[in-house]
Specification:
- With 99 residues, the chain is of the alpha+beta class.
- Helix content is 24%, strand content 44%.
- It has a five-stranded mixed beta sheet, with helices on one face.
- Keywords: Transferase.
- InterPro entries: Acyl_CoA_acyltransferase, GNAT_dom, NAT_camello-type.
- This is GNAT superfamily N-acetyltransferase.
- It comes from Peribacillus deserti.
Length: 99
């Protein structure tokens, strides 16, 4: 944004056929502009081109905006698990997208 990096995301190999989407971050000043959605779409495109058959990710249920993006892009909720992190009780979620 005006030459400043305001978002990031990456894809890592989880196995030969499964890729893992990691660390979707969008600076608060750039939120609401579609950047998060665009970054996730770029990862999906990359994973398909690289020959992966599934893309997975882990998030927390309180990250409503990110979860909305994942759902909109076709990911489905596969697993939920309670955990205690960052000083609070949270619900971790694993989401999957068949490519």
């Amino acid at each position: 944004m005006n030459g400043e990096i305001v978002g990031c995301i990456f894809v890592a190999a989880d196995s030969e056929s499964i890729a893992k989407l990691r660390l979707l971050l969008v600076d608060p000043k750039a939120r609401g502009l579609g950047l998060g959605s665009h970054l996730v779409e770029e990862c999906i495109t990359f994973a398909r081109r690289a020959g992966y058959t599934k893309l997975v990710l882990w998030t927390n249920s309180i990250l409503k905006e990110a979860r909305h993006i994942y759902k909109k892009k076709g990911f489905t909720l596969a697993v939920q698990e309670n955990h205690h992190s960052f000083g609070q009780d949270l619900i971790g979620e694993t989401w999957e997208l068949v490519l």
